Amino acid sequence: MSQQADGPTRLERDSMGELEVPASAFYGGNSQRAKLNFPISDLKFNRSFIKAMGQIKQSASRVNRDLDALETELGEAIDNAAQRVIDGEFDDQFVVDIFQTGSGTSTNMNTNEVISNVAISSLGGKLGSRDPVHPNDHVNKGQSSNDVIPTAIHLAAAGAINERLLPAMQELENALKAKSKEFWPIVKTGRTHLQDATPIRLGQEFSGYVGQLEYGRARAGKALDELSVLAIGGTAVGTGIGMHPEFADRMISQLKGMTGLDLSETANHFQSQSSLDAIVEASGSLKTIAVSLMKIANDIRWLGSGPRAGIGEIVLPEVQPGSSIMPGKVNPVIAESVTMVCAQVIGNDATIAIAGQSGNFEINVMMPVAAYNLLQSIDLLAATCENFSRQCITGLVATPKGPDMVEQGLAICTALAPVIGYDKAAAIAHTASETGETIKEVSLRETDLTAEELDMILEPSAMTEPS
């Protein structure tokens, strides 16, 4: 072993020559070259992606053993090493920056080297020796970075949507549904163009948010379906060169058993490896969910604005002091965090769109950044749905301000139009606006309608449904 300033190293040799690697590292020369080549950021693949890579390598070791393409002892050692990667024991050994080779080859080799060295260690061998378990010949057998990386992106994203995002969205939907039911008796003034409109139930307003989550879950489910179709089996360019004819089908079976996902092999490997269309589509669904959450969070902020100089129709839970200088100020911080997450997800989608059009002939060359942004979007949306539900929505309280303002609203004159005509009703509304009177007060003076008749016509709750 040789020594460097940053600690002891070992000397490894690959197809490009010799290279020093930290002596205790489970990654090898290929990973070290990538680490040195791409000192760009501190962004690395997340836990779900590393887990997916481990699942792919474990499945491959089992399939290759079953096909008699891998010795039993070596296959079992790779299987056990991959399981340790799946369990997260070696996350710190995945050292390659997101901004790397566009195919993700460096990360595929990072995975191959880690699993190879863990397996070698378990068999009593020497780290970095590539003996008796070779990262390419054994761990990567039947595979290419060009089908492994898109498969890992789909597998990680589908798993994250299924395990985290869909349950989190359901939780938020349930919380909004409970508030819709609780707020149903409360009639308030509706708003269009930020101006007074006809009465609406606060519960109806919240039912709109429930609907956005319902459709959002359907969109997430569609993304899950898109991502459940895997590229594995195409190897380098989609032809399957270097792969046993049964390899892909058996890989899908293994991965289905591991994940519980309804996975399938792509019907067109050339499409699945040369494009990121499914990822772009999935990201578009996530962007739409973010737009929905942005609308809901902003409405909640506005409805809770005040407490005295704002709309103030609901009170948000007080979770922290709102100002370093104004005592007693409390801000809608949870809703604000939601809007920032939404902005990030919308920005991620723009990055993914650019990445998606960056395919050249048989491969896309922006897979790592697309993967990072897609998985971050899923994680952020899941976390913010949970947090929004638990720290904000469940604690919302309605105030009397909404119902108290209904009689003062000008748009209730809409109910007069079928009785006295649009033009006369509009004139009453203009008069009420100028004098500060209510619609009822002006109507008593300007029409022949009695107070009792006006009470019936202008009953706010009657205006919240078709008549």
Brief write-up:
By secondary structure, this protein is mainly alpha-helical. The protein is built from 17 helices and 11 strands.
Helices, strands, pairings?
Blueprint: E1 2-4, E2 7-14, E3 17-22, H1 29-37, H2 47-66, H3 72-86, H4 105-122, H5 135-139, H6 145-182, E4 187-192, E5 195-201, H7 202-227, E6 229-230, H8 247-259, E7 264-265, H9 269-274, H10 277-303, E8 314-315, H11 333-356, E9 359-360, E10 363-364, H12 367-391, E11 397-398, H13 401-406, H14 417-420, H15 422-435, H16 439-446, H17 451-457
Give a structural overview.
The chain has 467 residues and is mostly helical. It has three domains: 2-141, Fumarase/aspartase (N-terminal domain) (Fumarase C, Chain B, domain 1); 147-401, Fumarase/aspartase (Central domain) (Fumarase C, Chain A, domain 2), CATH 1.20.200.10; 407-464, Fumarase/aspartase (C-terminal domain) (Ribonucleotide Reductase Protein R1, domain 1, Orthogonal Bundle). It is 57% helix and 9% strand. The protein contains 17 helices and eleven strands. The strands form five sheets. A three-stranded antiparallel sheet has the order 1-2-3, covered by helices on one side. Strands 4-5 form a two-stranded antiparallel ribbon. A two-stranded parallel sheet has the order 6-7. Helix 2 runs antiparallel to helix 3 and helix 6 (145-182) packs parallel to helix 12. Mean pLDDT is 96; it is low at 1-5.
CATH class of the largest domain reads: Mainly Alpha
What is the domain total for the residues? 3
Strand tally, please? 11
Summarize the amount of helix as a percent range: 55-70%
Arithmetic mean of pLDDT: 96
What integer value in Å does the Rg equal?
30 Å
Following the backbone from N to C, one meets helices and strands in this order, namely: EEEHHHHHHEEHEHEHHEHEEHEHHHHH
By CATH, the topology of the largest domain is Fumarase C, Chain A, domain 2
Low-confidence regions: 1-5
Strand content: 5-15%
Task: Please summarize the sheet with the most strands.
Answer: 3 strands, antiparallel
User: What gross morphology would you assign?
Assistant: elongated
Structural class: mainly alpha
Q: If helices are DSSP runs of H or I spanning 4 or more residues, what is the number of helices?
A: 17
CATH superfamily of the largest domain: Fumarase/aspartase (Central domain)
N- and C-termini, Cα separation = 87 Å
- Strand arrangement within the widest β-sheet reads 1-2-3
CATH architecture of the largest domain: Up-down Bundle
